[in-house]
Design goal:
126 residues, 2 helices, elongated
């Protein structure tokens, strides 16, 4: 009887700890569920919703400008599905706080600001 209680306690503990590890280790991937950024509509000058988030996957072509404090960058992104380059305003404090480098493949969560500038809210390295 005592061995049965100990065994059931161990099984319960293992199930609870496994569930906790699963929930903690699972990173919330909010970017992959977003719609693709409409590159052709943006380049044609058609209006986009400025408060909607989009996914933009591509490669960093170059860092064009850097703010005085070095936290805000203007980067050139070459999207995977296009031959064009898009300027993206990126806050280095967003995402995983890793440095941005040339030829780095990243997926960005972007939106348009009120001036029509593509602004990155969050990014993950591929």
């Amino acid at each position: 009887m005592k061995a049965r209680k100990i065994a059931s306690f161990c099984v319960g503990f293992l199930l609870l700890s496994g569930a906790a590890v699963f929930l903690i280790a699972r990173s919330p991937d909010t970017i992959s569920h977003l719609p693709e950024f409409p590159i052709s509509r943006y380049l044609d000058g058609n209006s986009l919703w400025s408060d909607e988030d989009y996914k933009l996957a591509g490669k960093v072509s170059n860092v064009l400008l850097r703010s005085g404090d070095g936290k805000t960058l203007l980067v050139s992104i070459k999207p995977e599905a296009s031959d064009t380059f898009l300027p993206v305003k990126l806050d280095k404090d967003s995402g995983k706080k890793k440095s941005i480098q040339k030829d780095q493949s990243i997926t960005l969560k972007v939106r348009l600001d009120s001036d029509g500038v593509i602004v990155c809210n969050e990014y993950i390295e591929k």
